[in-house]
Design a protein that fits this description.
The protein is an alpha+beta fold. The chain has a domain at about 25-75: SH3 type barrels (Roll). It is about 25% helix and about 50% strand. It has 1 helix and 5 strands; from the N terminus they run αβββββ. It has one helix at about 1-20; strands spanning about 25-30, 35-45, 50-55, 60-65, 65-75. The protein has a 5-stranded antiparallel beta sheet with strand order 4-3-2-1-5, with no helix packed on it. A hairpin with a 4-residue loop joins strand 1 and strand 2. The N and C termini lie far apart (about 35 Å).
């Protein structure tokens, strides 16, 4: 049982450090709202859309027509 908790703690720490080291991007929509992407948004030519994960871990999909600009914020 003690090994399980130690392993879980180490795994959580590694995951946290990996997430903190990822580049973040600001996605500016044409309506003026902004969203944050953890990692560079992926563009799908098939669906003409961007997909990315927000800081809360939710997957976001935006049509290309909705996006005005994508800017790199740097590492967090």
């Amino acid at each position: 049982m003690k090994k399980f908790f130690t392993l879980a703690l180490i795994s959580g720490f590694v995951f946290l450090m990996a997430a903190c080291g990822a580049n973040h991007y600001t996605v500016v929509k044409k309506d003026g709202t902004t969203m944050t992407s953890v990692g560079e948004p992926d563009f799908s030519k098939d669906s003409s859309s961007y997909s990315f994960e927000d800081p809360e871990g939710n997957k976001v999909i935006l049509n290309r027509e909705e996006v005005q600009e994508i800017k790199e914020k740097g590492k967090y």
